[in-house]
Amino acid sequence: MRLRHAATGRIEAFLEGLAPSPPLPTRPGFTSGLSMAPPRPDEILELARARIAAQRAQEQASSAGKRERFWEVAFLALVGAIVLIFVLWPGATLEWKLYAAVHGLVAQKHLVFVGERPLPLCARNLGIYSSYLLTLGYLFARGYGRAAALPARPLLAALAVGALAMVGDGINSVLEDTGRAYVYLPRNDLRTITGVLFGIALTPIVLFVFNRALRADAEMERPVLDWRAYSGLLLLNGLLVIAVYSGLEALYWPLALLGVAGIIAELFTMFLLLAAVGSGYTRRVTALRQLARPACIALVPTLLVVAGLALLRFAQGG
Known about the structure:
The chain is mostly helical. It has nine helices and four strands; from the N terminus they run αααββαβααβααα.
């Protein structure tokens, strides 16, 4: 009833604003050549309803904007708090913390040494997940952030060859590790190179699924990768491999942070996609900041998986 009285009051106020003004006095003998018929009652009511609907839509948009800003701040605050707690937690070096953070996610065999210090991820996973972050950043920087079409078939075949190279090298490495006959002697540089090729193949597919599922403004005709961008990715990731095996101790922290951030970011991306779809964001997103709320949700399973698996492995003596 209160809503009905409020709506009736708005319509009455609007009708008063539309009420015709009293005619202006005219000189005797003068007749105005302009005459305007007063609006019909149904037209007045329709205009009133339209104005009220527009006002409500404006209020809802303002409220939605405030909620989005709240979740943006909440997400940034949570990420900042997690990083600060991780860095400042006493009793362990940052190097060991990075090692522990991914301890439950990867085997941490065949580690790459920079100087005398091992990187937290093994050679293959270092290539995969460092490449994931580099490739994702490259594609967004080159304007593929809303692309939602698969690459051309020849390029898909090239990506598949790179992914299969990692599978083949992985099988060969497992055969050597288990004392069985193997094709060639495994090497860390080959593990990293094939891992990089897999990362280059994986990332555009993740971007394709993400944009197809969530983007309202997805560019359905634009491939997530073309030959020119692929060439750039090979060059960029080739520089990564060179940096990993350069032996420069100054590169330890950038490489260690890139690898750890890459594997956690890939895990977070999967949970973000699930949280966004489950929260009803399917094909509604026009800006990534709109995903702040499902991003906050996705942080929870990401942390639980990372911390839980690490604790489980440490408890088992791994």
